[in-house]
Write a structure and sequence with these properties.
This protein is mainly alpha-helical. 59% of the residues lie in helices and 11% in strands.
């Protein structure tokens, strides 16, 4: 059974990832936000906000297709 965090917890986590992106983008790092894909079904609004803000937001299916290798070339 899949455990889904309460909405407020998901919101908090996604905002934390957004803040982490802000910190890392000012340095020599790139921040890749990766989800298992289930969040795309249950937390669409927070993920939409993250997608519009952060440079990289992927699910596991995209990783399996080699998106990171393509970006790091």
């Amino acid at each position: 059974m899949l455990a889904v965090a309460p909405s407020a917890t998901r919101q908090w986590l996604l905002h934390r990832y957004r803040n982490l992106f802000d910190v890392l983008k000012n340095g020599e790092y790139r921040f890749f936000r990766i989800t298992d894909g289930n969040g795309w079904k249950t937390a669409t609004q927070p993920l939409r906000e993250t997608f519009g803000y952060n440079d990289y937001l992927f699910n596991l299916a995209l990783l399996e297709k080699g998106i990171l290798e393509h970006l790091l070339e």
